[in-house]
Amino acid sequence: MSLIREIHPTPAIIGSKESDDIDMLNKVKKDVEDMEELFDVAVIKGEKEILVAYKVKHLQRFHMVKIEEKLNKMLEEDYPDEDFIVSSDFKIFLEAVELHDKMEEDKDYSEEKAQKKFDKIIKLKKEMT
Fold first, then answer.
1. Which of 38, 42, 73, 88 has its CA 20 to 30 A from that of 3?
2. Cβ neighbours of residue 84 under 8 Å, at least 6 residues apart?
């Protein structure tokens, strides 16, 4: 369904779910969604990094580089202690949503499996750049 409409997945955390982390991820998600060029975002926090995968409005696709620079700058200024991986690639978005859904729906899905899948998504993103 994420291909044709907005799904707005809740932020997810692999590992300890401290309330400070949850509040911070909700704020990151809101800040990113407030950018007028974007219309959907998935946020997942792993051991070391936070993945922010987003979808760009169709008419804004010509400005992808500027949008990513603006988003990176905003995240670095607002959250200087965090390490963000930012991606507008739709495959990364789909993989993030899939991981989110597995973590939410499958109670037997271990933190190790989730972190391994998260690491694969990060590796895929780094190979694309």
1. 73
2. 49, 50, 51, 52, 72, 75, 76
d(CA 123, CA 113): 15
99, exposed or middle or buried, with CB in 10 Å at 0-12, 13-18, 19+? buried
Helix locations, the chain, DSSP H: 19-33, 64-78, 90-105, 111-128
Strand-pairing partners, residue 40, are 55
C-alpha pair distances (Å), 44 with each of 12, 23, 66, 97 = 5, 13, 23, 9
The one-letter amino acid at 55: K
